[in-house]
Specification:
Elements lengths: L1 H11 L10 E3 L5 E3 L2 E2 L2 H15 L2 H20 L4 H26 L8
Antiparallel strand pairs: 1-2, 2-3
Helix pairs in contact: 3-4
Length: 114
């Protein structure tokens, strides 16, 4: 419930992108990319890419350095409300990237019972 409220706020008040704007699940376990169903091989390929990406140095730089820059902007260098807002949006973008990875990594094919 809290996630729904947060997503509503982000979509309607902050006009921010949320992971569900990119990837969604159907109740049957189908993963959609911007409204188009993905094949199992496409999803498996993305899962492999994410596994590789998250082990790279550049991913760690993105996550750590950009997060630190955002915190500095919000807490150390903020001179006005816009500086705080800018830092918060930077952190939100990093969170969206991580959440998209989680959605893809958590996908498992539906086992059809015979």
């Amino acid at each position: 419930m809290m996630k729904r409220i947060k997503n509503w706020f982000l979509r309607n008040v902050m006009v921010s992108v949320i992971p569900e704007d990119v990837f969604t699940y159907s109740p049957r376990g189908v993963l959609y990319l911007r409204g188009e169903a993905m094949t199992e091989s496409e999803i498996r390929s993305l899962q492999n890419e994410i596994k590789f990406l998250e082990e790279t140095r550049i991913w760690k730089i993105y996550q750590n350095t950009l997060a630190q820059q955002a915190k500095d902007r919000m807490f150390e260098k903020a001179q006005n409300y816009e500086d705080l807002w800018s830092g918060k949006l930077m952190l939100k973008n990093l969170e969206v990237m991580r959440d998209i990875n989680k959605i893809i990594k958590s996908w498992k094919p539906i086992q059809v019972k015979k």
